[in-house]
Design brief:
The protein has 141 residues and is mainly alpha-helical. The protein is built from 5 helices and no strands. The chain has one domain. 82% of the residues lie in helices and 0% in strands.
Length: 141
């Protein structure tokens, strides 16, 4: 994967991450007691986005003209991460208020995932964050 494609993929991931964070912020406003898992998930997604922004900046600063081995190995991780975040966003958007106002209010007041599902998403986001953090460290060497 050339550095430009990696940058485009990184930008797409950050955009989807922003949508998920925004969706979660709406739930924070409407819920008195936001489950701890949700707070951790939102934090992991925000950290993932930050690490990816740093990695993209580092790749851009390094000239972007030459393809380094690290950019080739990140191709599948960037694609998978983007697909996972889009899947998560689609799930959350699907469960956002539609239908009757009363049913929509019930969905707004309750996080649409069970605690175990949320913990599984946390693990996925931690893995991607770790992958991109290691790539950033390698890129900076």
């Amino acid at each position: 994967m050339d550095p430009l494609s990696l940058l485009v993929g990184g930008i797409a991931i950050c955009q989807v991450a922003g949508k998920i964070i925004s969706f979660s912020a709406q739930h924070v406003k409407s819920m008195a007691n936001l489950p701890a898992e949700v707070q951790v998930l939102v934090s992991e997604i925000a950290l993932l986005s930050g690490v990816l922004n740093s990695l993209c900046s580092s790749l851009q600063d390094s000239g972007g003209g030459t393809t380094k081995p690290i950019t080739n190995s990140l191709a599948s991780s960037v694609t998978e991460c983007q697909q996972q975040l889009e899947e998560l966003y689609s799930f959350l958007a699907k469960h956002q208020g539609s239908g009757s106002r009363l049913a929509g209010l019930g969905r707004t007041l309750k996080w649409p995932m069970k605690a175990q599902e949320t913990r599984e998403w946390i693990v996925k986001m931690e893995r991607y964050k770790t992958t991109f953090s290691l790539a950033l460290q390698q890129e900076e060497l």
